[in-house]
Specification:
The chain is built from 9 helices and 12 strands. By secondary structure, the chain is α+β, with helices and mostly antiparallel strands. The radius of gyration is 43 Å and the shape is elongated. The chain starts with 154 loop residues before the first helix and ends in a 10-residue tail after the last strand.
Length: 467
């Protein structure tokens, strides 16, 4: 039978009580319903363990006195060494000089002792040994499931083995169909952000540049043979018109159509200059067809034009160089013997070129104008009139034909500048040299997409004349 607690005031109305009252004289509250105060204060830790119990309630009528100013807390032991880790005070003099019972809780303000089942850093004891651990019913930590030995330990090999691409950032995750890593979520570079290709002696490099969100340039290179068996090299470079719809698709379609047309016509014996003209017409038809596709209709806005691009190409045989173009992409001639002068082989279809041709401005003034790069000729359904330009040359010495978009020649406009940045061994190492030229544009700011193809022109056979 529980004893009635000794109360000085009613817990209901807070009126004073007389000793021994069973009911409150003011409100009639049954004082026997108030449970007696327990003799201990058990506290359950988060992990279910129960800390050691202190002395009965009321054993300490007042908190222990604070240590004197400047004294260490806890107080040093008899050997003047620092006390062990907080929460494990040894028996001995307390901060006020009185002895603490062996099982007494730490003084107020000291850090709590680590509870069993929750892993903290285990501090070493003065002798260099780890602190003894109390028995536990739960593990320190929950280990991850062991890897399946039947699965390869190399994530990249797993992704490659599954037929997927490996993330360029973490080198571990597989790239999903949307172009993001399934492991780290990193967006992957698109295939056209940087492209390189070699075909026989011809090489090309294309890069998105540093300012554009996509690469709207495209190229196609290849080699074939004329009916007499002599080799012939082909390079096509196209630059999508950014203000038009789907410029990247336009340049891709044009470069592919022109290359396929040339590589099919030249082995049949079609004259290279006529083959170049027909290739530009085929490229134009490919770009025009894009305007009729449903994808274009969905994206078309009133202020946008149909898909459009520029084009420039070169065909090199054993003694003949053919170039063709529409727009402001260019071709340059750089001889292997740099003592001979280089030359620009194309004329831009642009506002600046028209001003110079009409004698209204000199070249420096025209290209300094903000309208300089407005093109007057392009491939596309809304082009005013298709006028493919072609020209034939018979160089008398070996050299290299540089076929490029304005993303490169903006940083080396004059033929002399282009020759200066072209490596001396470009004819022997065209791919490396194309990378150097693209790097030059990127170092200059990379404001546009950059594409360049290099076509070495072989040495003229002995006894062959030049036109």
């Amino acid at each position: 039978m529980s004893q009635m607690p000794q109360l000085s005031a009613c817990p209901s109305c807070e009126e004073p009580l007389e000793s021994g009252d069973r009911f409150c004289g003011a409100c009639g509250y049954d004082l026997s319903a108030v449970p007696a105060r327990p003799q201990d204060n058990p506290t359950i830790a988060m992990n279910g363990s129960v800390p050691a119990q202190g002395p009965p309630a009321g054993a300490w009528s007042e908190p222990p006195p604070a240590p004197p100013a400047g004294a260490a807390w806890p107080a040093p032991g008899p050997d003047a060494s620092a006390a062990p880790g907080a929460g494990h005070l040894p028996p001995g003099p307390g901060p006020g000089g009185s002895a603490l019972p062996p099982d007494a809780p730490p003084p107020p303000g000291s850090p709590p002792a680590p509870a069993a089942g929750v892993r903290f850093d285990r501090r070493a004891q003065p002798g260099g040994h780890a602190a003894p651990e109390a028995p536990r019913t739960q593990p320190d930590e929950y280990l991850l499931q062991a890897p399946d030995p039947r699965v390869s330990a190399d994530p990249a090999a797993q992704a490659a083995g599954a037929g997927g691409k490996v993330c360029v950032a973490c080198r571990a995750g597989r790239v999903d169909d949307d172009g993001y890593c399934e492991n780290c979520g990193h967006a992957q570079p698109r295939e056209r952000d940087h492209m390189e290709q070699e075909s026989g002696p011809v090489a090309a490099v294309s890069d998105r540049g540093l300012r554009h969100h996509r690469n709207e340039d495209a190229f196609a290179v290849g080699t074939t043979a004329l009916p007499d068996g002599s080799p012939v090299s082909v390079a096509i470079v196209c630059d999508g018109v950014s203000s038009a719809t789907r410029p990247d698709d336009a340049s891709s379609a044009a470069s592919k159509a022109a290359s396929e047309s040339l590589l099919a016509a030249l082995p049949r014996g079609t004259h290279p200059q006529a083959a170049m003209h027909d290739a530009i017409v085929a490229a134009s038809h490919a770009v025009n067809a894009l305007a009729e596709e449903p994808a274009t209709a969905r994206e078309q806005a009133p202020h946008q034009n149909a898909p459009a691009c520029t084009i420039v190409g070169a065909v090199v045989t054993s003694g003949l160089l053919i170039v063709g173009w529409v727009g402001d992409s260019r071709a340059y001639w750089v001889p292997v013997d740099r003592t001979a002068p280089p030359a620009r082989l194309t004329e831009d279809d642009s506002w600046a070129a028209q001003m110079v041709a009409a004698g209204l401005m000199n070249e420096a003034e025209a290209y300094a104008d903000e309208r300089a790069h407005a093109i007057t000729g392009w491939l596309g359904a809304d082009a005013y009139e298709l006028e493919p330009h072609t020209a034939a040359f018979k160089p008398d010495r070996p050299g290299v034909v540089v076929v490029c978009t304005d993303g490169l020649w903006n940083y080396a406009e004059a033929a002399e500048e282009m020759a200066r940045i072209l490596p001396l061994d470009a004819a022997a190492h065209p791919l490396h040299s194309a990378r150097v030229l693209v790097g030059h544009a990127l170092d200059g700011g990379g404001h546009d997409n950059v594409t360049v193809a290099l076509v070495p022109f072989p040495a003229v056979p002995q006894g062959a004349g030049s036109a």
